[in-house]
Input
Amino acid sequence: QVQLVESGGGLVQAGGSLRLSCAASGSIFSINGMGWYRQAPGKQREFVASLISGGSPRYAEIAKGRFTISRDHAKDTVYLQMDNLKPEDTAVYYCNAAVVLPTRISSERDYWGQGTQVTVSS
Output
């Protein structure tokens, strides 16, 4: 089994910062990429940022200039540094990973964390 566990969410005032983390564990052969999505109540889940192995970070327009994604490959962990937070950033943030399993190394599968709540007050 593969587990993704997010942490670091919470309540912050507008203009503040939070750092989210997501650690993957379980029967993992490799992780080809990790990223972050978010979903506000009544809205679609949207892409925030991602980082593929050996590649450069990719950001949604909503995140550019304010958020920074990074990854610790040795620990199978991805981070999202969020600065200058705005009330519209309020959402549940989900970690995503493209995982290659030891039992099926010719393909990859997407896994999702349970989400961590980020609330930004005005």
Summary: The two ends are 40 Å apart (CA to CA). The chain has a mean pLDDT of 96. The CA atoms of residues 42 and 57 lie 28 Å apart. DSSP finds no helices and eleven strands in the chain.
